[in-house]
Amino acid sequence: MDFEKNMKNNFISWFCILLNIAVLSCEAPKKDPSEKNNQVEHIDSFESALPHGSSLGDTEMSDEDKLKLAEAVGKKAELIKLETLNQIIETDTSGWCLYQFWNLDCTNCLEINRYLNQLTRNQEFNSKLEIRYVNTKNLHPDQVNAYIRENEIVEEVYTISTTKLDDWATQIDQQWNGDLPALLLINNKDGSRLFYQQAFSMEELQAILGTLTL
User: Fold this and answer.
1) pLDDT tens-place string over residues 57-107
2) Which residues does 104 contact at the CB level (< 8 Å), separation at least 6?
3) Of 54-58, 80-84, 146-150, 195-199, where does mean pLDDT reach its minimum?
4) Domains in the chain with CATH codes
5) pTM of the full structure
6) CA 163 vs CA 53, 79, 82: distances in Å
7) CB-CB contact of 104 with 144 (8 Å)
8) Cβ atoms of residues 199 and 119 within 8 Å
């Protein structure tokens, strides 16, 4: 009799426990299905607020930098096709002309640009040799123009419209593999043509130019 009574009490106790668990489960707060969507929208909104979408690199020029660029002395790069550049090179009749191939990622190129810019301050030298700068990367035109004008480059500056230098380097010179720095000296009056694929010091550059009949 006592055994049956204990079994009955145990059964009632377990039943009450299970009942309480069921009640608590029903009362648990349900998550708002829109909550996840709100989080996604927040992330998308944050990424869209970054420069160029979700990328933090290559940020656009600030208004202050654009104002400085507008007030600077110098030219803007002219975007041209390779065919146009070849026409300019082959038909130029001004005597000796130097074409400096460069881009912003080439430190040695920028050094040569600086040397040439210093040499052009010599009026006698500048009147006898035409200098043209050829930017080989059709990327970040604002940064290129900022560099040109901040360094007060007043000679012609071209940007080739293709970004694949290896595809057209041999059209400038058969021995050019596309590496920079690269410098072309040409005189269509007497058919002279010199090509250099190397870095230069100021003294080396002066020595090369000194051999020319200017």
Assistant:
1) 345 656 765 666 566 666 789 999 988 999 999 988 878 999 999 999 999
2) 110, 135, 137, 140, 143, 144, 147
3) 54-58
4) 1-58 (no CATH), 63-210 (3.40.30.10)
5) 0.65
6) 23, 12, 11
7) yes
8) no
